[in-house]
Amino acid sequence: MTAEERPDEADEDQRPxxxxxxxxxxxxxxxxxxxGDRGDDLSSEAETAPRRRRGRxxxxxxxxxxxxxFGAGFGALVWTADHYASSVxxxxxxxxxxxxxxxxxxxxxGQTFLLVGLDARADRPTTGQxxxxxxxxxxxxxxxxxxxxxxxxxxxxxxxxxxxxxxxxSVPGHGxxxxxxxxxxxxxxxxxxxxxxxxxxxxxxxxxIDWNGFRALTDAVGGVDITVPRTIEAKGDAREWLAGTxxxxxxxxxxxxxxxxxxxxxxxDRTKRQQNFLRALMLRTMNSGTLSSPAKLTGLLGTVGxxxxxxxxxxxxxxxxxxxxxxxxxxxxxxxxxxxxxxxDSVDGQSVVLMDDGAAGVLWDAMRxxxxxxxxxxxxxxxxxxxxxxx
Length: 391
Description:
The protein is α/β, with parallel strands linked by helices and 391 residues long. It has helices at residues 7-14, 23-38, 44-87, 181-199, 211-220, 250-258, 267-287, 294-307, 316-325, 357-368, 372-378, and strands at residues 89-91, 111-119, 142-151, 158-162, 168-171, 175-178, 205-210, 224-228, 244-248, 308-311, 334-338, 341-347, 350-355.
């Protein structure tokens, strides 16, 4: 066989060295080829055996390199996740103990978080790693925002129910009062106990943020777009809001969610604004490339660690599992609503919000037993859900 008839050998002579080929392999190949020249009776399998050995070595080397690269990447991912999960401040003693305890957990019924926004009445941060003051001091803070967030067991839907801060309830050890007084009097544990007594729902975890953290978190995502459907005139300390879409930074968003005096339904409309903001923040995070940009995501995770505090039962692995399990949830799978409203009243000169206990009992039972999708389907017209137009 001539050189022209053996193009593979010519190509091999000109081929550069590779980490997958050793010099002795190349010499062995050439010797085998020369033996083929001297004897036409060598089988075709003998001629191709060295190539097969070299192919197997190439495959093994490639696999080894990929495993090293994957291992390094996975290790970096785990380190990053652990770093940011560890940066989230933990709240000790966040749940009632002793005789109060907690309601018995319903098996396979998802998880329920109590989300609390604090009116710390101070310029210094009180939540997160950046806190300069305690998250709770007797009489110093009230819970300005309370939401029950239920995550379904199949991790396909999330339901967020606001409880207005002026809701008139029984606070253990203190008699009747506005629900936001519970945090002021007894901190997270009394707040959790009050909500559990009201709803008979077991609170699995608690997350707390103050208004300083709220501003920082909004700015970390570059602000949010909020549409005001009609002009809201200034009233008292409340500013005027012109109809149209507003791109709000942290300071302006804080004004938006805290105002109630210029709104027709006061505290009820304010809870809708808070829900509307959360919806806008969620959409902003999903649509701005934050989740796919390492730089943006790192900045957001760092800010969350700086400004949010959670109960110390929520471990780093719990945070990983929760985040990973919710990866398929989309905006249309998140439902916002108010607790059933029973009217306004005045008690000892205080303006309070009454709850419709009968209707609320149906809602709490659905949340307790992980049947929120059924509840929403059956109460499509009566449930006070968040619409597209929010004053």
